[in-house]
Write a structure and sequence with these properties.
The protein has a 7-stranded mixed sheet. A 6-stranded mixed sheet has the order 2-1-13-10-11-12. Strands 8-7-4-5-6-23 form a 6-stranded mixed sheet, with helices on one face. Helix 26 crosses helix 27. By secondary structure, the chain is of the alpha/beta class. It folds into 3 domains: 287 residues, Aconitase, domain 3 (2-Layer Sandwich), CATH 3.30.499.10; 203 residues, Aconitase, domain 3, CATH 3.30.499.10; 219 residues, Aconitase, domain 4, CATH 3.20.19. Helix 3 links the parallel strand 5 and strand 6. The radius of gyration is 25 Å and the shape is globular.
Length: 750
């Protein structure tokens, strides 16, 4: 189904030929660069300095974004900025604090001139598709699944710091990315949905890094046979390939979609120019696609669903081993006992979010279930539409009614099931979901408390087929049903006109921000000192460490407007000892900032400093910083939310040490919070957990762009050297690190 071709090629009228790297300048003829160059604001440093047509954030991120921008001197939103409320809206913890965040968001939209989408009106990305996307535009969102390529829009998901830069009228700076050509041919068969194609793509390219930080450019005759929702369903999952963004050729279907949503003028044909250079090719034959399943604990663990159905025992034993490895005996998944008479039974099915809850997916699920029921046993089936306009359409044309008659539960527009804030399965249960991720504990379980569930990602069609068989895992390709006939889609814009606050371009500076008791300012953060002493507060040896493990999602979302309150959850489900250890060494830095002796609050530092002074006698309270660091093999896969970095920072974190960083997003978040993104070669670590690491002259090394930086493990036997690097840093990024964080940088420089 999928074939990868490495090496440069040139596009000419739909055909590609091998090309030398010397032709890489012809990337300018790709669709991606046609858009990137229009948004580039110049510069002689070889980077792209981009501004965006609009910004979008949800209620996990927008309070922190606005607080950071306000502290940095923002007085208005200079470009359209949409605040949605699709993440915290149903978290049942924290008293008033979720609604307090929403009240803050509305007051900020009024004060600074933005748009505000109330809770349960739309999930963030559906609203962007319906109201923001347009051919040749760029949208920046503080959510990793900001992908609108199927609508001719370059959508980029980044941490809140990058949104702040746009709000301060600065640029998004990125090394010009490579571009991978994705050629679609053929037409999907019976029972095959967009998630099947997307999961197959993730399985083909994630682990080998084939598209990491690159742009995917979709072309080919296969596009024309796909509905817009089908294209969108594939496109939104490109985030899970680790690519930077995506773009598709446009056609009459895109024109019709934009016209339906009142933006016909935003259509433009997009195609590669003859001579366009690509850095590789992915060929996808849609006619060979089949229903897929992504096993716990990553979308890239994809295999044909038929293999799981035909041989569940062997497959599930492997998942049990993964669980044991992931959670070290704290919790376990016992899955093979769910196989009865050779068939695997699951307990829950969910169709939701920016990938699953699309009209076509829901309509197809209703067709599969028409005349059947989900049973009265242990299987639950929930459907979340992506927006009220889509929900209204489903109600008015009878699709919702057919689902309800089958026993499905139709729920509000909400992202919760995707990140553990809704429909958390019971301990030991298996859930099948058309959502974007199935990372460890992302569904809401707490392995540290002995609670663990598993999630298999599947397409809505096979989830509905399974529901029709009362939880017995079933491929949609194996059930008979009449696919929904094409219908004339509707979009009632009055739904939004009646509920959404449209304030873009109309700031009211006199309007007061509304602060709930949980909304707090960022604590004071010091600049990078001349020398740095850090204690290793956690060593994570998993192949990949996700942002959900660095800062859990789910009910913790309620505390995301309180930096110190949220920080209490840092690594809580992965390394519960981390917070206490980080706080202890942070006491030394706090003492310094209060003009006190750090050794007085942390007596064990006396011996450490004695060892340091043997070789570096100049190290003293006026030139040294104290804090913590973590090591992870490959941290940062997953969400764009900056809290994975900011929580470490407010606990005194100065650096991460990694063999590599899973995404640009996470590394950028570290930098924007003034944390050093150290890279250390694969192999035996020179340090262990709780060790002290000393970096003399670290400030000078950052200033002078040192290619290598020498650190020392400090113990009773003296100092043992080791070497790290920082990778590529822009001049601005270096200044942000030197100042201590983006807030400090802008407070001083602007």
């Amino acid at each position: 189904m999928i074939k990868l071709h490495s090496g440069g090629v040139v596009w000419n009228s739909g055909t590609v030929t091998k090309a030398p790297e010397a032709m890489a300048g012809n990337r300018e003829k790709t669709m991606a660069y046609q858009i990137l160059r229009k948004h580039h604001r110049g510069g002689e440093d070889g980077l792209l300095h981009l501004t965006f047509d609009s910004l979008i954030s949800h209620d996990i991120t927008y309070v922190g974004v606005i607080q950071t921008a306000k502290a940095s001197g923002m007085e208005r939103f200079p470009v359209p900025y949409v605040l949605t409320n699709c993440h915290n809206s149903l978290c049942a913890v924290g008293g008033t604090i979720n609604a307090d965040d929403h009240a803050f968001g509305l007051s900020a939209a009024v004060k600074y001139g933005g748009d505000y989408v109330p809770a349960n009106q739309a999930v963030i990305h559906q609203y962007a598709r319906e109201m923001l996307a347009g051919c040749g535009k760029m949208v920046l969102g503080s959510d990793s699944h900001t992908r609108y390529g199927a609508l001719g829009t370059l959508g980029v998901g980044e941490g809140g710091g990058e949104i702040v830069k746009q709000l301060l009228e600065n640029t998004y700076d990125v090394t010009p990315p490579q571009v991978i050509l994705v050629r679609l041919t053929g037409k999907p068969g019976h029972g095959v949905g967009p998630h099947d194609v997307a999961l197959a793509l993730c399985g083909a390219v994630y682990k080998n890094g084939f598209v990491k930080n690159k742009v995917l450019e979709f072309v080919g005759d296969g596009i024309g046979g796909l509905s817009m929702d089908y294209r969108i369903g594939i496109d939104v999952m490109t985030t899970e390939t680790a690519c930077l963004t995506s773009i598709w050729e446009t056609d009459d279907a895109v024109a019709d979609y934009l016209a339906l949503h009142g933006r016909g003028g935003d259509y433009a044909p997009l195609h590669p120019e003859d001579g366009a250079y690509y850095d590789g090719v992915i060929d996808i034959d849609l006619s060979r696609a089949e229903p897929m399943a992504a096993l716990p604990f990553h979308p890239s663990e994809a295999l044909p669903l038929r293999e799981l159905i035909e041989n569940p025992g062997d497959v599930l034993r492997q998942v049990e081993l993964w669980a044991a490895e992931q959670f070290g005996g704290k919790a376990a998944l016992h899955l093979t006992d769910k196989v009865k008479n050779g068939r695997l039974t699951v307990e829950q099915g969910v169709i939701a979010g920016c990938a699953g809850g699309l009209y076509d997916n829901i309509a197809e699920a209703a067709a599969i279930l028409d005349g059947f029921d989900v049973g009265s046993g242990n299987f639950d089936f929930s459907v979340y539409p992506p927006s009220v306009p889509v929900e209204l359409e489903l109600v008015e044309n009878g699709v919702a009614g057919r689902l309800l008659r089958s026993g499905a539960v139709c729920k509000p527009c909400f992202c919760g099931p995707c990140f553990g804030a809704g429909d958390t399965p019971a301990n030991g249960e298996f859930s099948i979901r058309h959502t974007t991720r199935n990372f460890p504990n992302r569904e809401g379980s707490k392995p540290g408390n002995g609670q663990l569930a598993g999630v298999i990602l599947m397409d809505a069609r096979s989830i509905a087929a399974t529901a029709r068989n009362h939880g017995v895992l079933t491929s949609a390709a194996d059930v008979s049903y009449d696919a929904p006939k094409p219908v004339t889609r509707t979009f009632d814009a009055d739904v939004y006109k009646k509920r959404v606050y449209f304030g873009a371009g109309n700031p009211q500076p006199e309007h007061a921000l509304k602060f709930g008791p949980n909304i707090t300012e960022w604590p004071k953060i010091p600049a990078l000192s001349e020398n740095l002493l850090m204690q290793v507060a956690s060593v994570l040896r998993d192949e990949v460490t996700t942002t959900d493990e660095l800062i859990p999602s789910g009910e913790t979302s309620s505390y995301r407007s309180n930096p110190l309150g949220l920080a209490e959850f840092t690594l809580s489900r992965k390394d519960p000892a981390y917070v206490g250890l980080a706080k202890e060494i942070h006491k030394a830095q706090e003492a310094l900032m209060d003009g006190k002796d750090p050794v007085a609050v942390k007596p064990e530092l006396a011996e450490i400093m004695d060892e340091i002074h043997v070789q570096f006698p100049q190290a003293a309270n006026d030139n040294i910083g104290f804090g913590s660091t973590i090591f992870a093999v490959k941290p940062g896969d997953g969400s764009a939310r900056e809290q994975a970095a900011s929580c470490q920072k407010v606990l005194g974190g100065w650096a991460n040490i990694a063999n590599e960083y899973a995404t640009k997003r996470y590394r950028s978040n570290l930098i924007n919070w003034g944390m050093l993104p150290f890279v250390i070669p694969d192999g035996d670590l020179p340090f262990t957990n709780h060790d002290y690491l000393f970096f003399p002259g670290i400030r000078k090394a950052v200033e002078e762009k040192a290619a290598e930086i020498t650190g020392y493990v400090v113990d009773a036997n003296g100092l043992k050297p080791f070497t790290v690097t920082l990778g590529e840093l822009t001049d601005e990024e270096r200044q942000i690190i030197l100042k201590g964080c983006l807030i400090n940088y802008n407070r001083v420089e602007k």
